[in-house]
From TrEMBL:
InterPro entries: NAD(P)-bd_dom_sf, Sc_DH/Rdtase_CS, SDR_fam. It comes from the Eukaryota. This is Dehydrogenase. It comes from Lojkania enalia. Keywords: NADP, Oxidoreductase. GO terms for molecular function: oxidoreductase activity, acting on CH-OH group of donors.
């Protein structure tokens, strides 16, 4: 089936990247905040019916921010099915998506720990790490995935300081606060993974605030990969390309524009969260001992983006 592209773990089959998920009719819910995954007519594919766990993270303990929807949701599903105990963070307004995910995994006998709260609060970030470590019985995977963006806008003169601060504090400061707290309790062999973005290498129009924060995150991944080596903690970033998530509607994209974009992409379609999650699992895998300080691209071969 084109929409799932699932493969048997006993008899693997090839999956054509051009046709996987190509039968999905993509549409975005109305712009606003919050944008919930449950409000999508065609929901992002987060691996619900395609990801097969193999026990690669058995005995591990993961805290994943922005874990209620999009790439975060897909990463939660993948890591939980790989055997990790998982805690997620999300904004209180996003509780419906978090509840949907928890109920979905509960049917498989998987329980996740939920910690709603705003990562713009430095004290909350520190407390979140402590609470997650206690609830999970340890912490050896931190996924700094939560992020936001302003509305697509080419005119820098209309960007407000408030918007700039919010995007930077969400995308950069929160991950810094969480990492600062986490390294105090993470044992050697732990993995910290940041969601970066392909815009670091392939700038897109109208994304001044978002692109600037992701450039900062990419630098943090590289410098932390050096400084935390002495503690035996690996740090990496995943750089998604254009992916079908609620963040697109937050950025102001419409369904019409969303369906024009694939014409400019090498594979002729946008990515799905389910295609990102395996990279996060790979980077968390205990055998990836020499992978640190790198930005792992997953962008479908795109070299540039045209938005509008």
């Amino acid at each position: 089936m084109a929409s799932t592209g699932s493969a048997s773990t006993q008899n693997p089959i090839l999956i054509d990247p051009r046709t996987r998920f190509s039968d999905l009719e993509l549409s975005l819910p109305p712009q606003g905040f919050p944008v919930l995954q449950r409000d999508f007519t065609t929901k992002p594919a987060s691996g619900e019916h395609s990801y097969k766990g193999r026990g690669r993270l058995h005995g591990r303990h993961a805290l994943i921010t922005g874990g209620d929807s999009g790439i975060g949701r897909a990463t939660v599903i993948a890591m939980a099915r790989e055997g990790a105990k998982v805690a997620i963070n999300y904004l209180p307004d996003e509780e419906p998506d978090a509840e949907d995910l928890a109920n979905f995994l509960a049917k498989e006998g998987i329980e996740i720990v939920r910690f709603p709260g705003n990562l713009l609060d430095e004290e909350f970030c520190t407390m979140l790490v402590s609470r997650a470590e206690k609830a999970l019985g340890g912490l050896d995977i931190l996924v700094n995935n939560a992020g936001t963006t302003g509305i697509l806008n080419n005119d820098i003169t209309t960007y407000t300081t408030e918007q700039w601060d919010t995007v930077f504090r969400t995308n950069v400061y929160a991950g810094f606060w969480l990492t600062r707290a986490a390294v105090k309790c993470m044992p050697p062999g732990s993995s910290i993974i940041w969601t970066v973005s392909d815009v670091v290498e392939n700038p897109a129009t109208g994304t001044h605030d978002y692109a600037a924060t992701k450039g900062a995150v990419a630098s943090l991944v590289r410098t932390l990969g050096i400084s935390l080596a002495s503690k035996g903690i690996r740090v990496n970033g995943v750089a998604p390309g254009f992916t079908y998530t609620p963040l697109l509607a937050v950025a102001g994209l419409t369904t019409e524009l969303l369906n024009q974009i694939p014409q400019t992409l090498p594979l002729g379609r946008v990515g799905q969260p389910a295609e990102l999650a395996p990279v996060y699992v790979d980077l968390a895998d205990a055998t990836m001992t020499y992978a640190s300080g790198g930005i792992w691209s997953n962008n479908g071969g795109a070299q540039a983006y045209t938005l509008g």
